[in-house]
Amino acid sequence: MMEVSPAGRRWVWTLAWVLLVLTSMILISYGIIRSDWHIELPNPAGQEEIWIGSRYIFAGSALTFAAATWSHVRGNPVWVSVCVGLPGILVGWAALENPYNLMRHLAAVVSFPLALGGIAEVIWARGRRQRR
């Protein structure tokens, strides 16, 4: 049986965390694309598409909250946990507030680069615990 080193185990859990964050961002992006945006209230079929897209956004938001919690438990800096949780908070709030306008898009444009910065920090630190 092959024994996995602690560094290898740490990388496996780091990659699992990174995949969780990226999956949440993909779900949120797909929900935004699926629901599109409208200047005025769409027809009933369009409203149904928006509701389906919002479900993807809410699922991605739940994964984002899980990733932020896991980041905090892993010992990453607090700013990494906050940046990873921002897409779920901002885009989920915008989808709840008004699912028919561009707030979701703006929230994604603001929060996705911050989440990617949190991922880059964890990869750059080679998956080690960083909190002091």
N- to C-terminal distance: 36 Å
Number of helices: 4
Order of helices and strands: HHHH
Low-confidence stretches: none
Backbone CA Rg: 17 Å
* Assembly classification: single chain
Largest sheet: none
What can you see in these coordinates?
This protein is mainly alpha-helical. The chain has helices spanning 6-35, 44-74, 78-97, 103-124. The chain is elongated. The N and C termini lie far apart (36 Å).
Quick gist of this model?
The protein is 78% helix and 0% strand. The chain has helices at residues 6-35, 44-74, 78-97, 103-124.
Give a quick set of tags describing it.
elongated, single chain, 132 residues, mainly alpha
What is the strand and helix layout of this fold?
Elements: H1 6-35, H2 44-74, H3 78-97, H4 103-124
Helix pairs in contact: 1-2, 1-3, 1-4, 2-3, 3-4
